[in-house]
Design brief:
D-Maltodextrin-Binding Protein, domain 2, Double Stranded RNA Binding Domain, five-stranded mixed β-sheet, single chain, alpha/beta, 13 strands, globular, 312 residues
């Protein structure tokens, strides 16, 4: 029996598997030996975040619950690389693991899912919006304090079904996920980023491996998309300066202008949406990390202790 050249670790949701298949396709196209039958094996790993679906991530320990078991498999050598939605990757990656590459970013916008013909702005007062994201909850309430927001978790298909069945009037999902699943038509409308700034690194796929595994590193670094990596670096640096997690409503989006420049927009919000603090930076793309860190430190100075408390 021939062992696979690469074992790819991933969660088992339809979206996670679609992302893993994209990685398999890119690896096979870039390296002839990886296009051979049996060269690549997908290893599905159930994470704590997939197990506890009755509470928000903030209540059960944060988005690291989507990566903990996958990280353990990587460190123990049961897989060679892992595929992650970058927005699920914790601010600080465990020792012994490195982010080797970032794939080209999909549409970073949020998608509004409601009844046909409806929009976020046209929802009647008192309508119920379901979301597990504190960022989305805070921004929904900031723009529409007349709406109700309730926790809603599960994979994309589950949340779409909740809207179709009338359990909630609307929900918000990432356009990137719908596109990767071939379900873009499920979006009632895309919400522009000036109204709903996306989560840090939303729409990007990250590949992690062990830093001392030169063979795997060579494969993965060949797939890196420099422009997306720079944008994500700026956004994650802002997150790092804020020491942010999914327990805090934080949003950011960096864009490159194609001439070496980078522009970053970021914000923090009170969970109840009553206050949003914004900042922006512009500079050279090579300074992505310092631009993001500086933006995060400014936001941190503006929000003082207790800003993220629900009651404040």
């Amino acid at each position: 029996m021939t062992l696979p050249l690469l074992r790819i670790g991933t969660r088992g949701s339809p979206l996670a598997l679609a992302q893993a298949n994209e990685v398999r396709r890119r690896l096979g196209e870039a390296f002839a030996e990886l296009s051979a039958p049996g060269a690549l094996e997908t290893v599905i790993i159930k994470t704590s975040g997939d197990t506890f679906l009755d509470r928000t991530l903030a209540d059960i320990g944060g988005k690291g619950l989507f990566t903990k078991e996958i990280d353990e498999a990587l460190l123990e050598g049961r897989i060679d690389l892992a595929v992650h939605s970058m927005k699920d990757l914790p601010t600080w990656i465990p020792e012994g693991i490195v982010l080797a590459s970032v794939l080209p970013r999909e549409d970073p916008r949020d998608a509004f899912i409601g009844q046909p013909g409806s929009t976020f702005d046209s929802l009647p007062p008192g309508s119920v919006v379901g979301t597990a994201s504190l960022r989305r909850m805070a921004l929904v309430l900031h723009h529409r304090p007349d709406l109700q927001v309730v926790p809603l978790r599960g994979n994309v298909q589950t949340r779409l079904a909740k809207v179709a069945d009338g359990v909630v009037d609307a929900t918000l999902l990432a356009m990137a996920g719908l596109n990767r699943l071939g379900m873009a038509d499920a979006a009632t409308a895309a919400i522009e980023t000036d109204q709903m700034l996306p989560a840090v690194a939303q729409g990007a796929i990250g590949l992690t491996c062990r830093p001392d595994d030169d063979r795997v590193m060579a494969y993965l670094t060949a797939l890196d998309h420099a422009a997306t990596n720079m944008s994500v670096t700026a956004e994650r640096a802002m997150l790092g300066a804020l020491d942010g997690s999914c327990r805090t409503p934080i949003a950011a989006l960096a864009r490159l202008d194609g001439r070496g420049g980078l522009a970053l927009d970021g914000l923090v919000a009170r969970p109840n949406g009553t206050e949003v603090v914004r900042t922006s930076r512009a500079g050279h793309a090579d300074d992505a990390r310092s631009l993001g860190w500086d933006a995060g430190m400014e936001l941190r100075q503006h929000v003082g202790p207790g800003f993220f408390d629900e009651s404040s």
